[in-house]
Batch of 2 targets.
Target 1
Amino acid sequence: MSAFDLSVITENLPFLWEGLQLSLLLTALAVLGGIVLGTVLALVRLSGFAPLALLAASYVNLIRSMPLILVIFWFYFLVPLVIGRPVGGLYSALIALVLFEAAYYSEIIRAGIQAVPRGNIWAGKATGLNYWQIQRHIVLPQAFRHMLPVLLTQAIILFQDTSLVFVVSLRDFMTATSIVAQKEGRLVEMYTFAAIVYFVICFAASILVRRLKGGTPQ
Amino acid sequence: MIRIDNVSKWFGPMQVLADCSTSVDRGEVVVVCGPSGSGKSTLLKCINGLERVQKGTIVVNGVEVTGRRADLTRLRARLGMVFQHFELYPHMTALDNVCLAQQKVLKRSREEAVAKAMALLKRVGVEEQAHKYPSQLSGGQQQRVAIARGLAMDPVAMLFDEPTSALDPEMINEVLEVMVELAQEGMTMVVVTHEMGFARKVADRVVFMDEGRIVEDAPTEAFFGAPRSERARLFLSKILNHV
């Protein structure tokens, strides 16, 4: 019992792998949804249409003042009330993550859009492109290129934050590790293993970020 | 072609254009000059509606730019504009810079747009740079690509906003040569510039601005021969006599 027993990890590998898959899936979907919704929020805030811009700004500030765990709880109990039937942990967690991440992404994207030279927008206008064409072909491609490292950094944070979905009884990697640790009575081995896995994934991603930063032109 | 009537514009409390009136006929080349801050660039940007005016009217090709419901995107598509700092899209090759609006605004097919773009890039002498990105080009090359981008829309007139003032001296001529050629082919042009040699060579008229006003609007020879206003005389003596 006292020896550092690694067999507990290998024996439970399929179970842990399932957990990791859920963590990665949640991260991927929340990043995707967060960027799409975040882009919309950023464009609305920059649109100059005051009522909508104010609404978007309030949303961003509200969400950013809440702990993620609260938002997850909130949607777990709220969404069934709205649509009249339970939706289960996965969907409510996913909605919460997307809505939460969108607030952070929108701030990153807004800064990226504002960094695009104003003259480029004039040039687009001067050739007869309309607002959406200018955003789609001139502003957003440049903005995203500049933002890529920051967007990825945010994704790394999100990957770590998905461990919070245990509160709606989802079995992500962290939760799976805990279950095994409790069941087998191997806390040290399991939590060390979890730390190593998180470190390897996040560190590899951060190296990628550094590469991207160095490789962006200009 | 372009008619400007009693145009005034303010940035906050500061008046940048005061009662400006002038016109540009089809095929005419008009050079706008004057000290910096005199409103030349602002006036040019008003012509294609990049800046709105508060008073007066501007009519381009029969369309009132200053009208409330002016279809600005359609009008702009027919006016080429070249900027001081080129303003090429840095994430696209020279070729794609010239193709974008052709495909998105004029709805030309990719093949059509590419053919047109290559012909124009060749005409301004940068066809070998077609697949390079703006950051790989010299300033003079970038500005010539920007001219091709404007020409690709088959404009009724071209507007130039200090097209050579951000260039190293040795690159100014390659851009001016392209512009001279355009002028000689009969393109209607409004050029904001300090290049008095260019003005003398191809301009039909020179408009001299100071403090937001059009102080002088005269045929080129008359302007250089005997400017009527003291301000224009002073400006010319400074700009022509510098060593």
Target 2
Amino acid sequence: MLVDIQKAWKVYQLGKTEVQALRGVSLSIDEGDSMAIMGPSGSGKSTLMNLIGCMDRPTEGEVIVGGVSLSSAKDNQLAKLRSATIGFVFQSFNLIPRISALANVMLPMTFSDRVSKSQHAAKAKELLDRVGLSDRMTHMPNELSGGERQRVSIARALANDPPLLLADEPTGNLDTKTGNEILKLFGELHGSKRTLIVVTHDPEVASHMKKRINMRDGQIENGGNS
Amino acid sequence: MKFGEYLKLSWTNIKSHKLRSLLSLLGVTFGIASVIAIMTMMGGLEESLVNIITQDLLRADTINVSLSGSFGFFGGDRVFSERDVDRLRSIPGVKSADVAGPLRGGALYAGTKRLLDANVITTTDPSIVPLGVGRLVEGDGEIVLGANVAETVMKQFGIIEEFDDPDEEERLRLSGQLPPIDYEQVLNQELRMKYLNRERKVTETALTVVGVVKESQFLSGSDSYVDSSYYLDTEEIDGTEYLVFPGVFVRVNNIDRLVEVRNAIETYLTSDESDIKGLVGSQLDLDVQTTKEVVDEIRANFVGIAAFLGGIGAVALLVGMIGVMNIMLVSVKERTREIGIMKATGATNSFVMKSFLTECTMICLFGAILGILLGMGGSLLISQAMIAISRGLESIPFVFLYDWYIIAVITGLVVGVASGMYPAWSAAKTDPIKALRYE
């Protein structure tokens, strides 16, 4: 099991009010799964994604990713875990604007020993080639279209060969045609035995995933499968 | 991650914010530059003063004996008797003991015109005079003129043109439109001198100019030298009138025995056998200094001045450091999202911390190196300005202060780490979730 969540709670203090973002969520994701997490704004799906992505720790309950319990993990252990396990794809791409597409893809490799230093550039080129950007490698992010930027960010997510790809509204900032191309790319990646989790409120996107869960008020509505 | 990669990454970051990096760098640069410029300037002045004193006034084998606080050459109370000087000559290791003293009432005339600001000094050793052109006096009826006096004489005799406006003349001479004064032309001119002879009678004598003293900012241009036979200051000691002088220059046979001789001189002069002790009594406070000690004293004074001026530079550096810190904090804030991206893709807190710290230290290090260069250049400019406004100062030697450069580089590193520590720490502590949402 790649991700195992048992009765996870996440409570924030927002000024004087307490926000219960997650209220006892249990969920398990196996290797090779593909899952859509759906739900309206404020339903807790982003909080859930942050926990799966090892960016946060639960207030209560247990979240285990790649065999490591997040509750007791130190900041550096979480960073190592992200580096080894997770590839993030964001709605707003989150590329570093000052460096080229190639350098953006190489960035996660510098935080990990997975790819040897001499292979960084070659590996990054191979990944960019795979997402269809072999002729855009030296471009800066602002010289690329939205679809191209999202391809760079997917290539970056694959840099360290993580078992889990985590995408937050990956097509949210793209037109339908480009969005479909990105989904097609996800389909190919999932085909290569990678676990795929997509947070979305677009049923069209969710329909590409094998499993779907609906979040509402910090809880999973449909028990995890549909 | 290796250190080299931090450097590379920092360099990329610095390059992508060229103007900002440059501005924060300049804060450090000006701080370091002011310290280096001041130190180089002071070093140069010190060197030139020491050079002049050791080359023009004192030699390494010389011991300067005077009353405390006065320098025998320039005047002061006349308390060193001929007999004491003779006794100093008999101390083992002493090669010679010579005296110099201003002549009473020595008034010089060129033709019918009285020469102002002409200070006539007599000396038993003409060779203590730093000669520019001509030769030293060899007896009565000869004079070696100070550079300013020589110039006045040449104008009086119409050898060189006289200007109504001395500033205009100086400007023309400095800019090279007027040739430098050729002091050779004043040689063999005849002057007259009125002075008091040993019978306290005003006497007039003719003097031939045989030489001119070197032009130097540390030598008075009005001091002119005649033979010691014109000297008349005396004191009655043990019933005899002895000539008395404001100081004695003692030279030794063997420089290795300098300190030994110095101590012997001091012992004699402070003993009850000496005339000076009998004359001055318990007020006697002597300076018996070797050239090295004179130079050390000058250097010690310079250290004090340099420390004060350097302190002002250090304040500039502190201001620069606060500037760097400020800009780094802004930079961390601005790159919040970037920090979030790096953390999401696996960067540890220590990576984020080190990368900001490296960047800040690099900026400060560049600032320091630029500051050293700017400081060196600045001191050259100030030297030129000082030479331009001061007469007779031909050059201030440029000194390389290698230990100060090392201090400056280390300061750059320390300032970099110190000013980057808090911004880097706050970057490292950034919550990646909030950072990714940061607009």
